[in-house]
Sequence to fold (194 residues):
Amino acid sequence: MKPAELIREMMRIVPDLDEMHERLSQDVSAVIPSPTEERHQRAATRRYRNGVRAIVGEPGEVIDEELTRAEDRLIDRARRGAKSAVEKVKRHGTGAVLDADDILGLEAIVVWDGRPAILIQDGHFLEPPERWRRLNESRAEIEKVFESVGRVEVQGHPTLDWVGTAFMAGPNLALTILRLSKRFLPQYGDRLRR
Fold:
């Protein structure tokens, strides 16, 4: 994604740059969490229902120290870049000139704050990030939909066990992304469209 496109996407997701700037200044880790911190928090708070265990790993799992240090360095760069990039975008809009850390920071804002991954376990989603807590108001309706969403598994493929996700749009009708459809239906080629 080009910097101007990334800026536009961040501004779409975060329309109040002053508020984002304030949040980054007060507690950048609330906007861009550390995967290491998240892993430890999830391991400490993981709950098992009816003996079903999480597929994300065991509590207290050993994490390679070098990988953890590399992740932490990357997160530090993203946090610094996010602060710098938001200041630049506030001043110059989509014409802001961004360096590599600024781009990393904006991408982190879009991913973690604008489109957070929320773990679904045993048919329930875990507590969402603070900005997304309003999802709890519709928890029952959202969790009901989980029954129709799943992983697309393949048999007989030389290297893959699964290739993506889909949801049931009707009896015997699964809906997925175009790229995945083309993988299964190559004979249709360009006739498959959005």
